[in-house]
Structure formats: structure tokens, C-alpha cells
Here is the input.
Amino acid sequence: MAMALALLEVRQADGLEFVVAHFNHGRRGVESDLDQSFVEEWCSAQRVSCVTGAPDQASLERVRALSPEAAARELRYEFLTLVARDARAQAVATAHTLDDQAETILLHTVRGAGLVGALGMAERSTLRFGPARQEVVVVRPLLKLRRADTRSFCESRGVNPRIDLSNQDVSVPRNRLRLEVFPLLERINPGASDAVSRFGYLARAYVELADAEADRAWAGLVQAQARDAVSLSRTGLTKLAPVVQSHALSRAFRYVAHAGESLESDHVEQMIALISGRAGTSLDLPGGVRMKVGYRSVTISSAASAETAERCPYPPYVRVTEFEPPARLPLGRGIELSARIAALRAVRPTANGPDVALLDADAVGKRLRLRPRARGDRFQPLGAPVPKKLQDFFVDTKVPREWRDRVPIIEAGGGIAWIAGYRIAEWAKVRPGKTRRVLRLELLRKP
Here is the structure.
């Protein structure tokens, strides 16, 4: 309410437009509804636009795996993000105070979040919320004011805000810090909250320096990136200084995780230890995130994304290999690529299957190349009149994102000849009456 009152005065003086957004979690029954009515009535009296919302069943199911606090935050900020988008707002403003900042820093610290946890909240940050992970700019204009200042400001404007009595429940860790721990700390040092908050600003300066180093290394580390997964070069990570390595891993976690989920220092230590261990190991992280170490990559993804990756019928990675038929190339996980040439009359009239491709050997040529997909790839699927982006082909064919870097691609002089398991190229097909020799490519799988 203090922030709304301040924005109202700024609007009158400078013409700033703002919208009040109120999310009714419904956790306190009638009290929650009275809170909403209070906000709506104030907005109506002040001629301020007001948008309200509440969680639906589908949204509750989607965040069921999160802690109650994290789930509530995810739904609340997803709502705020949508309101900001619809209002074409430049940012979402929240009324966190210095006391909230100190509580956040101390809570993260005692939970073992390390120096990153001591950052607290930034005055301006870009976060991602909702299933589409839509970005929103969040600003916190009251972050250097005490909670008592906001209360006094409301009183000076004749407003008596409603109080959420659930904030008196000391079984909630943040409430216990607020009601029991900080009063004790204030006896030792009346400026304890300010001191904790200042420590957060100092920690931010240090972490931003390490983050800058991780940012410089990031482009060289990323091998593949999707909405809910990112794969980093294992070799690249091992070459980084430990502090930069931890920041790169934390950045990958933040990219995948729900906003509000955080890593503790022991999680980061386990992640770093895993990188130097054997391939095929994995680690479950907070918020349904999983880290998996391959031979050459480290993948951090949502649990659902990881499960999809586990079902992938291809090896963890595709090694770039040039070859000439006849050849038999081991791909890993008991899979081999067989390539042989035969006269057309010696080939049984069989259709191309997911693991078999019959190609015009003369059109394809002798020198072939096995490789994974690459940026800018184009492919003319069998039956298509013109080439298309390989990315579009994967989307149209419903190839899971987690599989796309693992699909073997056979390339020849004319371009991509076969997307293994999916389609041959139109230009490389067998042409009755014209084809003399057939190149048979096949993925052989051990039972």
C-alpha cells in the first residue's frame, strides 16, 4: 500500500501510469477475499486500474512438486508477468523493504546457500516465470527503506492497511527470523538489519565479478540450449577456475529452475565433484532439476526433460566421422551404423524404415560424413518440393528437444542425405529406371 500511495503521487506529479495487480492465493479463506476487496475499493476510489487473479487447478498441478512457498511465488509472479504483458508495462514493481532483504540474506545463509545466497534481492532484475519461461523486469523501489518507514508513510496518508495474520506463524522460517531472531540481533546491534543488508551489497560486488568471468566463458561452454535444458562442455568446465566453474553451473541451474529455487553450497560442491567423476552419473537438484554427466557434456535439465532424454533411442552424442562404404561405425550404447553398396537388382524391394535408408549410391557419392546437427542446417525431406530448416523439420516431426543433438545425420556432397530414424532426402532417393547402385544405411541395435 505504501508503494501504491507513492506511485499515485508520482502519477499526479509526473504522469506515470501504473496498474495495481493483486493475486488472491485463497489460503486464508474469507480473510483473503477481504484483502482483495480492500485493494479493489482503494483502486476504485483513486481511479487506478486494478487487475486481480487466483490460481486455477491446472496451475496448482503444475507447481505441485515445489515447496508451498516456491509454488506460491511462481504462481504469483506468473500472474504479474501476464498482467505486465497485457498492460505493456516496462516492469513489475514489488514493495520489498530492507527488512525483507535482511531476512532473505540471513535465511539463505543459514540454509547453506553460500555467498550467492547472501546476495538477496537486486533493485532491478530480469526473471522468467510460467510454462513459457517468459521474461519480466522486476524493480524494487523500496529496498532501502525499513518496514517501519512504509507503515509510517501509510499512516501519514490516512491509510490503514490490512495485516496478513499468517505472518505471525513462527513455524514458517522467515516469520521466525522476523519475529524472534532479528529482535535478538537488534539487541546486540540496533543496526543489525542494515548490517546484514550491507553485507548483501558487498557480496553482490564479489559475485558479479565472478559472474562476469563465467559470462565470458559461457558462449564457449554451451553445446546445446533449450527452454528447459542446457548442455555444457565438460572439458570447458574443467578448465575454469573453481569459483568461475561454480558460477557457470549456478547460472545453468537458474536458467532451468523455477524462479525462487536456489542452490545450496553443498549442491554446488556435489556438482563440481560430479564433473571430474565418471560419465553416466547424475544428481538431483532442488525444484525438480537434474544434472547428468556424459563423456563430453554436462546437461542440466528439468526432471521431465531428463526423463525424455533417458528415453532417447540414440547415443549421448554423435562423433563427427568421415567414412566410405563399406563401413561399420560404432556409435555407442550398442548401436552401430552399417553402410554398404549393392547393385539395384540385388536389393530386396523394401521400404525405407526408421533405422534403414536406401539411397542412390551414385547421387550420394563415395565420401560420407556422420555428424550431429549444426546451426543453419537445411534439409529436403523425401517428398518435399523444397529444402527447409532442419529445426523446422524436427518441430514438424515432433522430435523431442532433448533428442535433437543426439540424432545421427549422414551428410554427402549434395547435403544432408539421411536423418537417421526419421527421413531420407528427396535428392538422394532411389529412382526407378535411373538408379544403378543402392547405398544401404542401417542402424544396428544390439538386443
In short: The CA atoms of residues 46 and 100 lie 28 Å apart. The longest strand covers residues 335-343. The chain has a mean pLDDT of 87. Residues 225-310 form a domain with the Uridine Diphospho-n-acetylenolpyruvylglucosamine Reductase; domain 3 fold (CATH 3.30.465.60).
